[in-house]
């Protein structure tokens, strides 16, 4: 399973030299998020590999979900 947002979006890959490295770092982030590890080192490693904010947030969203305010009527 690829954790990249959209491989067809060429602008996302601009400047990246190693998409496999980015995928590996995002996978490490996903695994750390499923445990009780400190996520900051994993986030920094992913960003240093040129993962974009949307990719990092997407991984965290898949693990933790999204909060929605209850509708007040």
Give descriptors for this structure.
73 residues, mainly alpha, 4 helices, elongated
Describe this structure as you would to a colleague.
The chain has 73 residues and is mainly alpha-helical. It has a domain at 16-64. It has 4 helices and no strands. The protein has helices at 10-13, 19-34, 40-48, 53-64. Helix 2 packs antiparallel against helix 3 and helix 2 packs parallel to helix 4 (53-64). It is elongated and about 50 Å long.
Blueprint of the fold:
Elements: H1 10-13, H2 19-34, H3 40-48, H4 53-64
Short description:
The chain has 73 residues and is an all-alpha fold.
As a percent range, the share of strand residues is under 5%
Helix content: 55-70%
As an assembly, this protein is: single chain
Biggest beta sheet summary: none
* Sheet/helix structural class: mainly alpha
Instruction: Round the Cα radius of gyration to an integer and report it.
Output: 14 Å
Number of helices: 4
Number of strands: 0
Q: Provide mean pLDDT, rounded.
A: 85
The residue ranges in which pLDDT falls below 50 over 5 or more consecutive positions are 5-9
Principal-axis shape:
elongated
* Terminus-to-terminus distance: 40 Å
N-to-C order of helices and strands: HHHH
């Amino acid at each position: 399973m690829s954790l990249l947002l959209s491989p067809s979006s060429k602008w996302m890959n601009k400047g990246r030299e190693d998409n496999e490295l980015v995928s590996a770092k995002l996978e490490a982030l996903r695994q750390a998020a499923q445990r009780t590890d400190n996520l900051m080192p994993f986030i920094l490693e992913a960003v240093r590999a040129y993962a974009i904010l949307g990719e990092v947030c997407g991984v965290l969203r898949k693990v933790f979900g999204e909060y929605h305010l209850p509708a007040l009527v």
